[in-house]
Amino acid sequence: MDTREATIQSAIHDFNAGIYLSQRAAAKAYGLPRSTLQGRLQGATDSATSHQHQQRLTPQQEEFLVEWILEEDARVCPPSHARTREMANRILRMNGDDQPVASSGSHTLSADSHASLQL
């Protein structure tokens, strides 16, 4: 769970426990938009869960890909976008998905950019 999601869950917990008497007070205390807290209290899901069905890789496969990038980076051989796409395509083919990942140019990925990796 990322830190934003943990913050939202803490605000929900504290509001439900009666620590804060209003959604506005709980949202303000945690630095969240009131509408975010209100939506979650009404059953809205986080964006990662909401869009999970649109992802071609499972969360475990994404984690494997990130770990591979980090290992390659640790070997002082960060993978290019082309190598990363090829690895993602190999993972997809294991799922029976033969549609390749779209090309986005030729750059090198590093440990600093792994978090922004979006497939």
Report on the structure:
The structure is a single chain. With 119 residues, the chain is mainly alpha-helical. The mean pLDDT is 85. The longest helix has 16 residues, at 59-74. The relative contact order is 0.11. The chain has 6 helices and no strands. Residues 5-46 form the HTH psq-type domain. InterPro entries: Homeodomain-like_sf (IPR009057), HTH_CenpB_DNA-bd_dom (IPR006600), HTH_Psq (IPR007889). It comes from Periconia digitata. Keywords: DNA-binding, Nucleus.
Q: In terms of quaternary structure, what is this?
A: single chain
The tally of strands reads 0
By secondary-structure content and strand pairing, the structural class works out as mainly alpha
- Could you give the distance between the termini? 20 Å
Largest sheet: none
Please tell me the overall pLDDT.
85
Order of helices and strands: HHHHHH
Rg over CA atoms, rounded to whole Å, is: 19 Å
Poorly predicted regions are none
Number of helices: 6
Shape: elongated
Q: What is the helix content?
A: 40-55%
Number of domains: 2
Approximately what portion of the residues adopt beta-strand conformation?
under 5%
What would the keywords be for this entry?
DNA binding; nucleus; 119 residues; mainly alpha; DNA-binding; HTH psq-type domain-containing protein
Nutshell version of this structure?
This protein folds into two domains: 50 residues; 52 residues, no CATH class. It has six helices and no strands.
